[in-house]
Automatic annotation (TrEMBL):
Molecular function, one GO term: hydrolase activity
Protein family membership: Belongs to the peptidase C59 family.
Entry protein name: Linear amide C-N hydrolase
SUPFAM superfamilies reported for this sequence: N-terminal nucleophile aminohydrolases (Ntn hydrolases)
Keyword Protease: no
Superkingdom, natural source: Bacteria
Length: 350
């Protein structure tokens, strides 16, 4: 079937068509090594440009967690951080100066449930910055989030939904899903891969059934799911991640984990929406080490194809900075290109 992406993109921009339930994309991997700490990699896969920025935020700033509800969560940031943003409204991935990282990936099953006045409200667009601002370890973050009720933010009238990964410099990891108003938490180093739907326990069951049963069967002829659907990407990512050998350097580790993360090809068919075959290609990928604290970005969408790095250590000086993440001018180490300006979270300041 012929694909007409121009028609789809125009419809999205006008708010005529936006089927959020079809946005099944993104992968996140975490890899703990013996001598080079913890590496994290994620892809951002979407059907149209999301106009991301890379924002650096100083600690000591206060924010409002939701625009409705009688008890919107409020906080003052304890840690400086760096994060990638989404549609000028949300933070989707990043890490803080304590070595804690958080990732938000699309998840259609997220459901706030009935409003509960006893729990503070936090819109899911702000959950990544909230985590980065307040916690130094996965254990702290899991305990804090259990007290919070999630609201969903909307784009073009459609609720965008997510589930969340947290990891710290010790290698600890957690996956959190908010379903029917309750948190489902998977906490442990073994939870090293996240994609999208279905619910996480079903991914774990699929891996248990399809994983290699012995080392001897791992080879280029081992039958492995490889298409773009979330269930297949989960298996593919787990299989590739478990083969990684100890890196020889930080750069070698970054190359290894990024190469092991499923990148959805541009123009790869995903599913049909209103008679149009759509693609949810990888717009960009991030890779970083939680000791080193340098964010590596590979942007590859539209007419932009570039790779660059942001040394958070050079920008963690008590100021706020932002950078347009999808510029072809971003090449090499780009901390000097950042503008001294508040980013996406400025609109939620109190």
């Amino acid at each position: 079937m012929k694909r007409n992406k121009t028609v789809l993109a125009t419809a999205v921009a006008l708010g005529v068509v936006f089927t959020a339930t079809a946005a099944e994309a993104c992968s996140r991997l975490i890899w703990e090594t013996e001598n080079h700490g913890v590496f994290v990699s994620r892809t951002m896969d979407w059907m149209v440009e999301t106009h991301p920025t890379i924002d650096v935020r100083a600690k000591g700033q206060s924010y409002l967690g939701a625009d409705s509800g009688t008890d919107s969560k409020q906080w003052t940031s304890k840690y400086a951080s760096i994060m990638a943003t989404f549609y000028g409204k949300a933070g989707v991935d990043g890490f803080n100066e304590a070595g804690l990282a958080a990732n938000a990936l699309y998840f259609n099953e997220e459901s706030p449930g009935d409003y509960t006045a006893e729990r503070p409200q936090l819109e899911n667009s702000r959950i990544v910055p909230y985590i980065l601002d307040n916690y130094a370890t996965v254990e702290e973050a899991v305990a804090g989030l259990k007290k919070i009720q999630i609201q969903q933010f909307s784009h073009n009238g459609e609720a965008l939904k997510g589930h969340y990964a947290i990891q710290d410099a010790s290698g600890d990891s957690a996956i959190l899903e908010f379903i029917d108003g309750q948190w489902e938490v998977y906490h442990g180093k073994q939870y090293d891969v996240l994609t999208n739907s279905p619910e996480y326990h079903q991914h774990l069951k699929s891996w248990e059934e399809q994983q290699p049963k012995s080392q001897s069967v791992i080879s280029g002829s081992f039958t492995l799911p490889g298409n773009v659907a979330s269930e297949q990407r989960f298996i593919w990512n787990k299989y590739m991640l478990e083969q990684l050998e100890e890196p020889t350097s930080y750069l070698n580790g970054l190359a290894k984990i990024n190469s092991s993360t499923y990148h959805v090809p541009l123009d790869a068919a995903n599913r049909e929406i209103d008679g149009v075959m759509t693609s949810y290609a990888t717009q960009y990928s991030l890779a970083y080490n939680l000791d080193q604290k340098i964010m590596h970005v590979r942007y590859q969408f539209g007419d932009v194809y570039t790779q660059y790095a942001v040394d958070f250590n050079k920008l963690n000086n008590g100021k706020n900075y932002t950078l347009k993440a999808d510029s072809q001018d971003n090449v090499g180490e780009v901390s000097h290109l950042f503008i001294d300006k508040e980013g996406v979270m400025a609109q939620y300041r109190i």
